[in-house]
Amino acid sequence: MKVRLFTEADLAPMIALGARMHKESAFAALPYSPSKLTDLGHQALTRPDVIGSWVAISEKDELAGMIVVAKTEFYFNTVPYCTDLLFYIAPEYRGSSAAMRLLAFAREWARQQSCVQMRFGDTALINSEAVHRLYTRNGFKPGGTLFVADLVT
């Protein structure tokens, strides 16, 4: 498994893999917008100091997984932290080194951006037990609870 920085050539395959993630996730009932993701991809390419994005490429030269993170600040000060925008491993590559390697690249990027924390969630609710194991094995601890209220039926 090889991990590398996202490039323009990765955009279409990432959008396709994103559609798989969306279909499998807790967000499946919401619309999926490839144009929004194209914009996000261009932001990652033009502002790598604010948005970090990496891909995991299998030995078969297939997109096995991806992670996109952002540098932001706490609402009460200007201290930066890193949050995940998306983190997904294709089902056929779960259990490989893809998730661990992508997380390591994101952690190093966050350090380079002077972030004081990584604050990642499990909002997609895909394979939550494995996600929780991955995060706790990598030094994360629970940091709150997310509540959701649907406003449109």
Description:
This protein has 153 residues and is α+β, with helices and mostly antiparallel strands. Helix content is 34%, strand content 22%. The protein contains four helices and five strands; from the N terminus they run βααβββαβα. The chain has a five-stranded mixed β-sheet with strand order 1-2-3-4-5, with helices on both faces. A hairpin with a 5-residue loop joins β2 (51-57) and β3. α1 (11-24) packs across α2 (34-46).
What keywords describe this structure?
153 residues, alpha+beta
Biggest sheet: strands, sense, closure? Answer: 5 strands, mixed
Number of helices: 4
User: Gyration radius, to the nearest Å?
Assistant: 15 Å
Straight-line distance between termini: 42 Å
Q: Tell me roughly what share of residues is in helical segments.
A: 25-40%
> Which of globular, elongated, flat, extended, rod-shaped describes the shape?
globular
Oligomeric state? single chain
Spatial order of strands in the largest sheet:
1-2-3-4-5
Question: Mean pLDDT score, rounded?
Answer: 97
- List low-confidence stretches: none
Order of helices and strands: EHHEEEHEH
- What is the β-strand count? 5
Strand content: 15-25%
Structural class: alpha+beta
Write the layout of secondary structure elements.
Blueprint: E1 2-5, H1 11-24, H2 34-46, E2 51-57, E3 63-73, E4 80-89, H3 98-112, E5 118-119, H4 128-137
Parallel strand pairs: 4-5
Antiparallel strand pairs: 1-2, 2-3, 3-4
Helix pairs in contact: 1-2
